Amino acid sequence: MKIITCFKLVPEEQDITVTPEHSLNFDRAEAKISQFDLNAIEAAAQLAGDGDEIAALTVGGSLLQNSKVRKDVLSRGPDALFMVQDAQLEHALPKETALALASAAEKNRL
């Protein structure tokens, strides 16, 4: 059986600041894997049996260049990691993200 876990990167909450104009400043906020998605990766690792394959899949912009993210995901059990990086996905809406994930899964035969 193949198990696909999709994940997204979010800003580190404690590094987000509020500007004097009352807007959020993400300049110092490093990217991390969403806690909910870490739970999904862990659940996939627990569900997988002998011979099962776990693939982690994400799409996004320049934040995906962070090598720490790759190590963090792969250290949690997936056998393969697929990351689709495109500047157009930097601020993609949910529908665009879902279409990109579906296309990547199909292209990689997941």
From TrEMBL:
Q: Superkingdom, according to UniProt?
A: Bacteria
Q: Which part of the chain is the Electron transfer flavoprotein alpha/beta-subunit N-terminal domain?
A: 28-108
Could you tell me which Gene3D superfamilies the record lists for this protein?
A: HUPs
> Which keywords has UniProt assigned to this entry?
Electron transport, Transport
Report the InterPro entries cross-referenced here: ETF_a/b_N, ETF_b, Rossmann-like_a/b/a_fold
Q: Which GO terms describe its molecular function?
A: electron transfer activity
* Protein name per the record: Putative electron transfer flavoprotein YdiQ
